[in-house]
Amino acid sequence: LTEASAISIKSPVLSPENITIPFTSCLSSIGISKDKCWIMWQKKRLLWLPVLFRPRCSAVSGSSVMIGCNSGRVIIMRF
């Protein structure tokens, strides 16, 4: 396992509404549910996201899911 820590990133220019990338990735079939409660895999619930870790903004690239939380935390998960 690797060590990880949270960093706070603040940007007055960008808002979550204009940086959120669509909920699913066509290439890997991984994404975030429309209600932002689940990481999805091939339209099936894979990982439930606790309230504190639900995305304010998110991105999916290949088999990686990046989540920006309201707390300022950024979570990157690779599947």
Key phrases:
79 residues; mainly beta; three-stranded antiparallel β-sheet; 1 helix; globular
Please characterize this protein's 3D structure.
The protein has 79 residues and is mainly beta. It has one domain (16-78). It is 5% helix and 38% strand. The chain contains one helix and six strands; from the N terminus they run αββββββ. The protein has one helix at residues 16-19; strands at 30-32, 38-41, 44-48, 55-61, 64-69, 74-78. The strands form two sheets. Strands 1-2-3 form a three-stranded antiparallel beta sheet, with no helix packed on it. A three-stranded antiparallel beta sheet has the order 4-5-6. It is globular and about 30 Å long. 13% of the residues are buried. Mean pLDDT is 79; it is low at 23-27.
